[in-house]
Design a protein that fits this description.
Elements: H1 3-26, H2 34-47, H3 58-80, H4 98-110, H5 117-131, H6 134-143, H7 148-174, H8 181-207
InterPro entries: ER_ret_rcpt
Pfam family, one: ER_lumen_recept
Transmembrane segments: 55-78, 98-115, 121-141, 153-173, 179-202
Length: 215
């Protein structure tokens, strides 16, 4: 654990709390992509298969439970909650997200550190997380007008990944033999996907205007 990883974890947690706040308090999921939330649920389910078998620390276990529970709760809210689901934008959230799952799984079968079930699933989750934000970004580009909580949610997700890159750089220079090419490349791809959003987010913040993405 180092300050960059802790900051990344807290930023990731903050993004989830912002989204839950929007859904639970305002009873609205407007601007939120169900497709991205379903991909995140798959990511965490595949990544945390070891939650009850390989104990690392209390902190690690609690964070795993939080992300598993929150991701499936958000999907349930959007799909099943009688009030929240009314605000779901089905007409614009049409990205064929399941077509991302198979390529990521096939890639995990080819590129992995060890050919075991848990390792393959962990690698699959890394690849899938890298592209899981795509349906959300496409939805925001189609609707263009973005409310504050949705903008903060996506910004915090991108910031979490950026902080994790700093964590990897720190560990590379402080830990001997620390090399994880799969995680690094997937993380860089994921961060690159946020670049356009970050630009317009900071422009709206600097000019004190409502965040709006170009068509």
């Amino acid at each position: 654990m180092n300050i960059f990883r802790l900051a990344g974890d807290m930023t990731h947690l903050a993004s989830v709390l912002v989204l839950l706040l929007k859904i639970h308090t305002i009873k609205s999921c407007a601007g939120i992509s169900l497709k991205t939330q379903e991909l995140f649920a798959i990511v965490f389910a595949a990544r945390y298969l070891d939650i009850f078998t390989d104990y690392i620390s209390l902190y690690n276990t609690i964070m795993k439970l939080i992300f598993l529970g929150s991701s499936f709760s958000i999907v349930w809210y959007i799909r099943r909650h009688k009030i929240v689901r009314r605000s779901y934008d089905r007409d614009h959230d049409t990205f064929r997200h399941l077509f991302l799952v198979l390529p990521c799984f096939l890639l995990a079968l080819v590129l992995h550190d060890k050919f075991t079930f848990k390792e393959i699933m962990w690698t699959f989750s890394i690849f899938l997380e890298a592209v899981a934000i795509l349906p959300q970004l496409v939805l925001l580009q189609r609707t263009r007008n973005i409310d504050n909580l949705t903008g903060q949610y996506v910004f915090l997700l991108g910031a979490y990944r950026g902080l994790y890159i700093l964590n990897w750089i720190y560990r590379y220079f402080t830990e001997p033999h620390y090399i994880h090419w799969i995680t690094w490349i997937a993380g860089l791809v994921q961060t690159a996907l946020y670049a356009d959003f970050f630009y317009y987010y900071f422009q709206s913040w600097k000019n004190n205007v409502k965040l709006e993405l170009p068509a």
